[in-house]
From TrEMBL:
Spans traversing the lipid bilayer: 7-27, 39-63, 75-94, 106-127
Protein's organism: Cohnella hashimotonis
Entry keyword Transmembrane helix: yes
Residue numbers spanned by region Disordered: 141-160
Record's protein name: Uncharacterized protein
Keywords, in A-Z order: Membrane, Transmembrane, Transmembrane helix
Length: 160
């Protein structure tokens, strides 16, 4: 359990770092002020990209890393907790971290961040809910499988 929490925490930090680095590098180009005509389309595309990344990582967590039910939801909770805590400091020191953004772009960043963390809580839980666990193997299924995989016993028996 501790190993899982450490890995999920690392993934949460990586997701936060990816988002923050993206807006540090490209924020001046992709963020438009809320008063601009392209605000809705720009925000929609940013949120759609964010949703795809979150859903992809949640599916990797659920299907590859930890195959137990609830692991993607746990990833969403841990990632949102870590990301919100770290983004508190990003917003506090915005002049040093997001120095290229003007006031309108900064407001757009906070709107994106709010919606992104709502997606971070919802999408992994939805992915966890949609992925069904494998049904338990019944005794009848084992008998059928054993019958198909073994050789005919009458051919193997040789009396002496």
């Amino acid at each position: 359990m501790l190993r899982q929490m450490l890995i999920l925490s690392g993934l949460g930090i990586a997701m936060w770092a990816l988002g923050t680095l993206f807006f540090m590098l490209f924020g001046d180009w992709v963020l438009v002020a809320a008063e601009d005509r392209q605000f809705g389309a720009s925000l929609f595309l940013l949120e759609a990209l964010t949703a795809l990344v979150i859903l992809g990582v949640a599916l990797v967590v659920r299907l590859r890393l930890f195959r137990m039910p609830g692991s993607a939801t746990r990833f969403g909770f841990i990632g949102a907790l870590i990301g919100l805590l770290l983004n508190t400091f990003v917003l506090l020191y915005r002049d040093k971290v997001l120095y290229d953004l003007d006031q309108g772009q900064y407001h757009t960043f906070t709107i994106w961040m709010t919606l992104a963390y709502a997606l971070f809580l919802l999408l992994p839980a939805i992915a966890d809910r949609l992925i069904r666990a494998r049904p338990a193997e019944t005794a009848h299924d084992r008998d059928v499988d054993d019958g198909l995989n073994t050789q005919d016993e009458s051919a193997a028996y040789r009396p002496e």
